[in-house]
Amino acid sequence: MAIQTEVLVLPPRTPSRLASLWRGDFPLIPALILVVIALVAIFANLLAPHNPEIGSLTARFRPPFWQTGGSTQYLLGTDQLGRDVLSRLIFGARISMVVGITAVLFSGVLGTTLGILSGYLGGWVDQVIMRITDTWLALPALMFAIFLAAIVGPSLWNIVLILGITYWTRYARVIRGEVLSLKEREFVRLAIVAGCSKRTIMLRHILPNVINTAIVLGTLELGVVIIAEASLSFLGVGVPPPEPAWGLMLSDGKQGLMVGRWWLTVLPGCCIMLMVLSANLLGDWLRVKLDPQLRQL
Amino acid sequence: MRRYIARRIGYCLLSLFLLSVTIFLFVRVTGDPTTLLVEPGASQADLDAIRHQFGLDQPLWVQYGIFMTSLAHGDLGQSFYYRTPVLELYLSRLPNSLYLAAVAMALSLLIGVPSGVLASVRVGRFWDSFGKLFTLLGLSLPSFWVGLVLILIFSVYLGWLPSSGAGTPLHLIMPAFALGWYFAAAHMRLTRSSMLEVLGSEYVKLARLKGLPQSLVIAKHAFKNALIPVLTLAGINLVIMVNVATVVEVVFAWPGIGRLLFEGVTFRDFPVVQGVVLMGGAMIVIVNMVVDILYAVIDPRIRLGS
Amino acid sequence: MGRSVSGEKRKSATNVINPTRREVLALAAGGLAAVAPGLADAAVPAGQLTWGVHISLAPTWFDPAETPGLITPFMVLYALHDALVKPMPGGPLTPSLAETVSAAEDGLSYDFVLRDKAVFHNGEPVTAEDVKFSFERYRGASYEAMKARVAAIETPDPRRVSFKLKEPWPDFLTFYGSATGAGWIVPKKYVEKVGDDGYKKAPIGAGPYKFVSFTPGVELVFEAFDQYWRKSPSVKRLAFRVIPDEATRLAALIRGEVDIVYSIRGELAEELQRTPGLSLKPVNSPATFWLYFPDQWDQKSPWHDERVRLAASLAVDRSSINQALTLGLSKLTGNANVPDFFDFYWSAPAPPYDPGKARQLLTDAGYPRGFEAGDYYCDASYSNLGEAVLDNLQAVGIRAKLRPLERAAFLEAYGKKSLKNIVQGGTGAFGNAATRLEATAVKGGVYAYGSYPDIDQMFQEQAAQMDHKRRATILQKIQQVVSERTMFAPIWQLAFINGAGSRVGESAFGLIPGFAYTAPYEDITLKSG
Question: A143 and B197: CB-CB below 8 Å?
């Protein structure tokens, strides 16, 4: 019998590690939660039973429907101005998503760019950027945000701007570290020898390799940004009323805690917690998958 | 070596200088403090008088000059609101913040480190997940909310702890927890990845090969080594904690520098804001520099490489 | 001799109880105390009361010379110091350190006779030299105005002081006694010895309480001064603790960590009301709130039409908002700028809530479907009020966007006249109707974006008018005209809500009309037992 040798044709090695993500310990529930929140945010107009910004003073402080005094008209109760809590939570998802994602994108782009420039170009560019980073880090983020809110006045986009400007430093530092080690790698050296311009190298070779890190950082920073927004609202300089931002609802309702109106804080608090926790779990998992050595995070 | 240290000190000073200019300009852009120091509706003459008293009617560069020369003498100026030297105010409140941060840091390590170890060793799915979840929960809840709920439960309903202020160790428990819980996650993550790295190292593999029981391996060899970076991070975080404890300090009426800064910003008390931010910034920059230098001392590649 | 002036009441030269009678009363009280041990012992101060204060205490408040134009420093001044005349239960300008006050017919001089018994905490008597010194060193709010008008201060003998003015100034006593700290007396020899900074560290005054200690931003402690001329305080020690967060403050009151708290708003006030053992102490504050229409002076703006402004005013459901936000305790009034206990106050009922009429007025003015009103500016700390009022406006078709600004930014923009459309303004400043109108409705006022010539002229008239009655007539006419032209839509006169715990006997809230805090301190008592 002839020896049959099978020639194993291996499929080409997948260049991206991302493909291997879809199995095993993928945190399904957190991811689903985030997707649900995103969907709620997008379809808020269809889902919300009432107008989140207008209430009637005669319907103040109704508890959720399962408690005495509650009704199915206001499923999750009403707040101090008679506005429906459920509708506010739904529209609040939109605000949290918008604020969170935009701020993260903004700070991510800014920080990553500066990190790449700083790490790759080195020299005085590096020093200048690092000094600025140091200075920025030394400004307590929350205070910085209060300042800006005082100058430009509170509004949704200003808050995004503020949060974006405040939180870019982490990206810059971490990405810079990555770039520093990337610079020594073969393929970069080859590209330099081949005569590629600095810009090409940064865009084509460096950037794709730090994107993973940036994404991980982004998911982790999402939680930070959302919590920061809530803290800013508590201090009075967050998203301005009557916008139904979760952080603002939390801050407005905190007095209600003492008088037993738990739904005004517990419900927005749960929403915040769900979103941030999910983002953190997802980010953690991503981090482990993509590079368990990322200790600086 | 000396050159490296000298360079680092130089950068440190540069950062501080940049910081001073930034904060100086910033506070002045936030607006006019004089309107806050009188009831709305006061006369223009009153406002002008106050402005003159604080030297705010002078050109910017003059104000900056005065600011910097005083700084050189160790004088951070006088608070508009309190009319006492800022340095005095700062130093009287700093110990409180440090105290709070230290206890919060201890709590945070207490929660974070075991969770990180458990998560890395995977003792059992339950404890692994529970530790991780609890820690991450701290990162997912705004600290002011945690603080208020704690006050409600332990102060108002149960009556076990005093609700606010400072004075006895009892006053410290709730604010320290509210503050420390947030940082626990960072420590957990670092412990975990640090442990993983050490557990995968040659050294530990050798210990296992030698036949040492698992728990001993973990406890003696892996853990101690894994702890070093965690403690380093903790040291840096301590300084950061002091500066971000504002929200907790406001909720618990804790007399620290976070609250001082917040009030300073609210009242546009320029000298206070400048002083607190500069001092805080100086602490961070100096700590960073010291850590960098220590690393360079330990690892020669770093100082030669840069 | 000139006319006597003693507060509002036109009595004889002294409206103070005859010393002899007071001594008799004290003896009787002492006798009663000896006989009935269960009664509170008025002669010997005992016990301590603790306040939870909403705002950081500043050492500048210990020195009346630096009193900024805020009300909060008076919290401390009433305890530590005393003034020649000051607002007391008897009236807004009650002679205190001065036994008698009299003004010359021509309004160019004011004579004070000091009380015998008045002493400082170090035992030194209060003399005319101290009065003169205190005035000259004053550099707080309005000091330029005061210094400019006072020509000289004469001290013919240690118990007499005479202020000579350059020209008649009917409001001199108001400024001297209530709006500024110039009339609060500090000991000259002591201040000169320790210097201004040293004084702030260990202040000495002539008030019912002595300074004990102060930890900045944390706690302030006073101790009773038995030789206070008016009466010996019954509470031995007072402690003031700073607790900026409202919910925390209330928690402290509930737990008994503090006995009195200031400024509890909204739902927390309801909780206060419901908790057994705690009592709600609302105080009529001098803070009036209004809607201002900066565009009313612009002919092209809808707000130029009085009907539109009136429509806005009628659209606001004041009593529901009052009930919702301040438990119905605020005073609804038709006088937008002047609180009811101020001198020269003109009373008017609050506009009715009539959204139907509002819509009708808008239709008449040419806006049957309402209009886009632009922005509604307010101080962020009062944005809950803003939200409620804005809701009402939206309901009749006046559509605007809420723009809460941080306090400092708001005040600055309001004062710099850069706000437009609708402004929710308010002020709690001291003074009288004239000072309020000056700031809001008269040409040159910090919050007046425009003015009417007839109002301006009337205002000039009353400024020179020495006769109180005639002045009152003019000022009331001005307020009436302001109201008729709906220059403002009045909102309310805010009730400042405080709380007191079960250990407090007489809390002294509301004893001095219009003063938001507990005073006079010497009247505060602990509940016995």
Answer: no
- Contact with chain C for residue B36, Cβ under 8 A: yes
Chains within contact range of chain B (3+ C-beta pairs < 8 Å): A, C
- What pLDDT shows up at residue A24? 56
Calculate how close chain C gets to B100, using CA atoms only, in Å. 16
Burial of residue B212 (number of CB atoms within 10 Å: 0-12, 13-18, 19+): middle
Contact indicator for C91, C6 with CB cutoff of 8 Å: yes
CA distance A53 to chain C (A): 9
Judged by average pLDDT, the poorest of A35-49, A112-126, B280-294, C193-207 is B280-294
Query: What is the predicted ipTM?
Result: 0.74
| Interface probe with B: pick from C200, C245, C342, C442, most Cβ of B within 10 Å | C245
Name which residue leads in pLDDT, C301 or B243. C301
Cβ contact (<8 Å) for A241 and C324?
no
Contact C242, C218 (CB under 8 A): yes
Distance, in Å, from the CA atom of A285 to the CA atom of B6, rounded to the nearest integer, reads 41
Residue A162 contacts C where some CB pair is shorter than 8 Å: no
H or E element that contains A264: helix A263-290
CB C252, CB C261: distance < 8 Å: yes
CA C473 – CA C475 distance, rounded (Å): 6
In chain B, which residues have their Cβ closer than 8 Å to the Cβ of C68?
Answer: 37-38, 50
| A54 close to A83: Cβ distance less than 8 angstroms | yes
Q: C272 is written with which tokens? A: 């206060």
Report how far Cα C54 is from the mean position of its chain's Cα atoms: 16
Residue type, position A209, single letter: N
Residues in CB range of B209: below 8 A, 6 or more apart: none
Residues of C in contact with A58 (CB under 8 A): 320
User: Which residues in chain C have their CB less than 8 angstroms from residue A61's CB?
Assistant: 267
C-alpha C467/C-alpha C485 separation (Å) is: 27
Nearest-CA neighbor of C288 among C426, C487, C495, C433? C426
C57-88: buried (b, 16+ CB within 10 Å) or exposed (e) per residue?
Answer: bbbbbbbbbbbbbbbbbbbbbbbbbbbbbbbb
Per the CB < 8 Å rule, is C408 touching B148?
no
The reply to whether A201 touches chain C by the CB within 8 Å rule is no
Average of per-residue pLDDT across C298-302: 89
b/e per residue, B182-194, with b = 16+ CB within 10 A? bbbbbbbbbbbbb
Local confidence band at A142 (pLDDT 50, 70, 90 cut-offs): low
- Exposure class string for C442-474: b at 16+ Cβ within 10 A, else e: beebbbbbebbeebbebbeebbebeeeeebbeb
**Partner-chain contact C58 B82, CB within 8 Å:** yes
CA C440 to CA C426: how far, in whole Å? 10
Contacts across the A-C interface (CB distance below 8 Å)? 75
Task: Round to whole Å and give the CA distance between B242 and B94.
Answer: 9
